[in-house]
Amino acid sequence: MPPVPFPALERIRADVRATRAYGVQESSGLIKLDAMENPHALPPALQQALGERLGRLPVNRYPDAAHVARLHAALRDYAKPPDGWSLMLGNGSDELIGLLALACAQPDACIMAPAPSFVFYEMTAQQQRMRFCAVPLADGFQLDEAAMLAAIARERPALLYLAHPNNPTGTLWDAAAMQRIIAAQGAQGGIAVIDEAYQPFAARTWLDEVQPARNAHVLIMRTLSKFGLAGVRLGYLMGDARLIAEIDKVRPPYNVGTLNLECALFALEHAGDFARQAADIRAQRARLMDELAALPGCTVWPSEGNMVLLRVADTPEGAQRIFEGMKARGVLVKHVSAMHPQLVGCLRLTVGSADENTRMLAALRAALNSP
Predict the structure, then answer these.
(1) Residue 172 burial class via C-beta count within 10 angstroms: exposed 0-12, middle 13-18, buried 19 and up
(2) Residue 113 per-residue DSSP state
């Protein structure tokens, strides 16, 4: 039968209809190690305390400005941005990335990022009809400084994203190269966004490098998702108060709900518990990398995130076979071959709990040894 006409679809932009939505893998019944989540639940006593606090909130009302202000203050105390900086909240850092594109979407504007990196940078450029310029990484997934500097001079990007550490490679960029690239972005009048989603697991933060007088064009973005609150969806953007004030104008009203605000406040009050969880994840990452490095025919790269990039085959089909073999054994990871040519044959493994990592390694070894 011929397709039924559906004229309303023609009202959707053709470029939107030609793209694919961001995919989330079905994980029911599987050990979920594909999305860089914290594997540790809240201890029972904290679960009960949080539940009681949430139960007392006036969810019949919109989020209160004083509630938002309390979280702003708690985040400032936790992150310690420089004097003269302020922050804004987002429904996860994903919303903040989208709002940055919306705020900067002038004719012929460009968003730039190294590649491979977080796919949402490019997606938001497409959504706002901005140009996207990807600069391939050098060997070892480090920044290609010369190529980045040339691209900045040529394209004059409105937004330059540097994920620190990077997703999906786990790389922490060379600090001196970052400084020069960030300076070049500022010299041509652009904004540099340092995406620190994985900061709890990294050896350093770019906040320690910031010089407010020279870095008024620098924004630092973080999320509480990797901190341990992926289900809460709370991101925050820090930067010069003048820049944040302009970007905040495109933020939807009440974009962060009352329950989210209170969960974030509660988590920051118990930051020591989450810091201990992050320490355990870092220890498990070291163990995982040691065991992966010993696997014949596999290549593992150093990571400063809560994920490890592993090449298991020379082709996408070979990596897909390993991915499916692990899934058949109850473990879900991420096959990233299609993301970028440098990732062909690669899987991205989230660092889980000790038991989850043991079971993931067993599934991986079995899949590698299966015909």
Answers:
(1) buried
(2) E
Q: Which of 213, 236, 162 is nearest to 192 (CA)?
A: 162
Per-residue confidence band for 1, with pLDDT thresholds at 50, 70 and 90: low
Total residues found in the chain within this entry: 371
Cα angle vertex 264, ends 307, 70, to 5°? Answer: 140
Strands (E), the chain: 31-32, 85-90, 110-115, 131-136, 159-163, 191-195, 218-223, 235-240, 299-300, 307-311, 331-332, 334-335, 346-350
Average pLDDT in the chain: 95
Longest dimension (CA), the chain: 66
Per-residue pLDDT of 219-263, as tens digits, reads 999 999 988 899 999 999 999 999 999 999 999 999 999 999 999
Asked if residues 349 and 310 have their Cβ atoms less than 8 Å apart, the reply is yes
**CB contact at 8 A, 237 and 244:** yes
Residue 371 is predicted with a pLDDT of 77
Q: Which domains does the chain have, with CATH numbers?
A: 7-43+272-369 (3.90.1150.10), 58-271 (3.40.640.10)
Nearest-angstrom CA–CA distance, 197 and 163:
8
Query: Cβ distance 356 to 33 under 8 Å?
Result: yes
Residue 18 has pLDDT above 90, yes or no: no
Entry pTM: 0.94
CB 309 within 8 A of CB 169: yes
SS3 state of residue 298: coil
Q: At what angle do helices 354-369 and 271-293 cross, to 10 degrees?
A: 20
